Every structure is written in structure tokens, then in C-alpha cells.
Amino acid sequence: MTARGPLPIPDIAFEQGAPVSRAFGDIYYNPEDGLAETRHVFLGGTGLPGRWRNKRHATVGELGFGTGLNFLATWALWEGEKPRGGHLHYVAVEAFPLTSDQISSVHEVFPSLASQSARLRAAYPPRARGHHLIELAPDVTLHLLFGEAQEMLAGLEARIETWFLDGFAPSKNPDMWSPEVMAHLARCAAPHARLATFTVAGSVRRALSDAGFSVRKAPGFGGKREMLEARFEASPGADARPWYAMPRPHAPGRIAVVGAGIAGVSCAAALGRLGCDVTLIDRGVGVGGGASGAPSGLVMPRLAAAPDAPAKFYASAHHFAVRAYRDRDAFSAGGALHLAPRVGQTGRLEKTASTGLFDPERLALLSPTEASARAGTTLAGPALFFEDGGYVDASAYLKAATAKFDFLGGAQIERLSFKDGRWQLLDGDGTRLIEVETVVLACGMGAGTLWERGAWPLEARHGQITKASGGDLALPIAYGGYAAPAGDGLWIGATHKAVEPD
């Protein structure tokens, strides 16, 4: 069942200088020395010191992000032991994320992690259900999954090499340690993945063993006599894979990204940060020549009245986009309003606000009077105010993101051909322009003409935006279409009409 509603704010107290959850009656870490406990149980228990030698990509998963202490300690260890060109991807699940203020107060007692803590706090995501992908450093990515463990893991595809199980004790929070959750750990585990946890509860040992882990007890930390260490011995489970599922991990070789709009440039930049050999290709002589070159770049999430799969995807995409634009000084915040599709449909706005997919501290349902005051013009109905709404300067973003990859402009690619394990990108005369191991198509409807027309469920639509003189808005308003301030007038858009692919 899909959970909905705002995520609860943890009610914590401090005992002996360490945070304690009043709701669960359990500590977040050992009050004697939380950092030493992390290093002993999780880093030492999974053999991480030394396991990263000559390994370019490391993936760590955690149940119970809590204060972020385990992540900070892992990051610090990575900085001391990472191989040249390596990348750390850390995935953590948390159903009760702390606020930024709570995290700041907790991290004060770990001065040796101050550098990592400052970067985490600066990039800490909104407390909204879903996936939050955060690039904390060129070689460190944090992937936070805010929500109940079983639901969040069910939507995760990964090959985790190292698992930390650090939820509240099984007797306090049994849902975190259920057989279903352990089965998801196994499904997402890499071959011979290592696992560690502070608990030796029999139910946990049995669930891990049934999921394919070999389990053994090891000396615990401080006054705790024992802990668990485990290794994944079974083969990763088979799962039904829809057409849009992520491909299985493989060595990508040389990569061609076709399409130099925001999608293609963002993809090429991300691959470049991972050390991949990437060439960005476009028909135009520069980046942003298509729809991404539009002068009005409104940033607003796609709304839904229920937290279904598309709603979760678009909410998470919105959170990521805002961070990406801000990181490159290409985002002008200030908020945006979203009106009900029709006058009187306030219920839909209320349902959207209650999904939990947006931080309630950055979202407000306004009365017509309040919404009119925000907009600077009279509105007939209520509206949702999104604090994280605003504008993207697409040209500034594209310029800042264009790095660490080659660009091939003016390339008239008409067809793809797969031969001897490599992709050939051909022009209209059949001349090979480039040959690569992997191709990413980020060229909109152009994808349908390059390879097996009809292979993907694509629909072509044409549209335009219009600049109108006059009008006075203080911030953008979405209503199915949208109206946005344009200095001396308004941008109004966007029309959309279904057409046959070119």
C-alpha cells in the first residue's frame, strides 16, 4: 500500500549528549562514542577499510539514515582511501527524516566530520516522500529514500555492495526488519555483498538467512557483546522488468548522447562526472537549439491528487531539477502558484497538498485573497503556493553544465546501426559519423526515426509560447497553461497539438 501524508517530524530528546527518539524509545547512536561505534560496527563489520583499493565505483546502502552519522563516516573514509577516478554512491532509506536544524545540532559533537557535515547540511533535501538524488562532491552521490522501508525498497533497482542495517531495534520498530524488507535487500545486493548490523535478534538472523545471506556473530561495540556480519551468497533475484526499467550494470565504453537540450546536456554531464568517455551530438551547431532554448523556463512540478507512480516520479524529478539549477546559479526562486483546473475544484488542490510528495513547510494552500496578494492580481479561486517554483535560465544552465565531454555539432544523424557489439551513427548517405559502445537518445521525437520506429510509446506534439504586452504578475501562475512575468509583459503558454512524427 502506498503511504501518503507529510512525513512526521521526529520527536527527539538528548540523553548523555546523544539523541533519543521519544516515539521509539531508542537511541540514534551510542552516547559514549557514536563515531567509534559506527567505525566498529558498520565500517569494520563490512571490511570497508581496504575493500576500495582499485575499485572505481563503490555502492553502499543503509536502512535508517537517522542523523547521517554512518554516511559522514563512510564519506570521510572514502576521501582517505578512494582510488583515482572513483565514485561513491550511497543509498539510504529513512521514514522519519530529521529537520535541518535537528541535524545541525547533532553534528556539532563530531568536529572531525565538520567538512562533510557542512556540505550535507547545505544540500539537505526537502522533507518530502520519495527519492532525493544529491551530488555532494564530484565523486560522492547521496541517494535518500524518504518513506517506509518496504515501499521505498520495492521501487529501488540497484546493486549494493555494502549494506548497513541501522534502524531502531527490532523490538521497537519491527517493520524495518521484516522478511519482506530483507528480501528486498537481497534483490538489490551485488554478488558477495557484505552486511553489518548492531542487532543479533533471532528474527533478523533468520530473515537474512532465508533471503540468501550467510550470517555470523561478531564482537560488538563497547558494552554490547555481539553484532552481526553477513555475506550475500545467493544469486540476485529475477524480477519483472518493464520497458522503462534501468539496464543491467555494464561497462559502457564510449558513449554517444544524441540531443543537446537540457536532458542531453544533463545526461552527458552526469556521465562525465562518473569518468565516462562521452560525446554529445546535435543537429545544431550549439547546445540548446531546440525546445530548451525557449526564453521562458518555468520550473513547476506536475501535480497529482494521489501519490501514484507518475506523481512520485515527477515530484522527485522536480526536487532534483531545482538543486541542479541552483548549483549552477541558473535558478531564480520566488515561488509559483498553481490554480485548480476549474473554479470550485478546491478538493483536488487539498488532495495534492496531502500526498506528502512535497515538504509542507515549502507548500501552502492559499485562499483566493491570499493567492491574489501573492500574484499581484485578482484570482477567482484558491491556489497552491510552491516556494521552490521559479524560473530556469536555460542558456546559463547549459553553459555551466557543458563540461567533461566532447561536443559534436551540426551532425545530421539519420540512422543507427548495431554491428559487432558497437553502435554506428550514420548520416543520410550512410556515412558513419561516430562508432560507440553505448547510445543515449535524448532527442525527443527524433528517437523514433533513428531506430525501429514505433519501438517506444512516443507521441509527437507541437506547441508555442506567446509574449503579450501589458499585464502585471508578481510570480508565475500555472493553470493547465501558464502565465509568467516577462519584464515588460507576460509569457503565456504553452499550446500543444498532437502531430504525426516527422
Provide a compact summary of the structure:
A hairpin with a 3-residue loop joins strand 27 and strand 28 (482-485). It is built from 14 helices and 30 strands. By secondary structure, it is α/β, with parallel strands linked by helices.
Question: Secondary structure elements and their pairing?
Answer:
Layout (H helix, E strand, L loop, with lengths): L11 E4 L2 E4 L4 E2 L6 H11 L3 H4 L5 E7 L5 H13 L5 E8 L5 H8 L6 H10 L6 E8 L2 E7 L2 H6 L5 E6 L13 H9 L1 E9 L4 H10 L1 E7 L6 E7 L21 E5 L3 H12 L3 E5 L16 E2 L9 H19 L3 E3 L2 E4 L6 H8 L9 E4 L1 H8 L7 E4 L3 E3 L1 H8 L4 E3 L6 E5 L2 E5 L5 E5 L1 E4 L4 H5 L9 E3 L3 E4 L7 E2 L3 E4 L3 E5 L3 E3 L3
Parallel strand pairs: 4-5, 4-8, 5-7, 8-9, 12-13, 12-24, 13-20, 16-27
Antiparallel strand pairs: 1-2, 2-3, 6-7, 9-11, 10-11, 14-19, 15-19, 16-18, 17-18, 21-22, 22-23, 25-30, 26-29, 27-28, 28-29
3D structure, described in words:
The protein is α/β, with parallel strands linked by helices. It contains 14 helices and 30 strands. It has an eight-stranded mixed sheet with strand order 6-7-5-4-8-9-11-10, sandwiched between helices. The chain has a seven-stranded mixed sheet with strand order 17-18-16-27-28-29-26. Helix 7 runs parallel beside helix 8 and helix 9 packs parallel to helix 13. The model has no long low-confidence stretch (mean pLDDT 89).
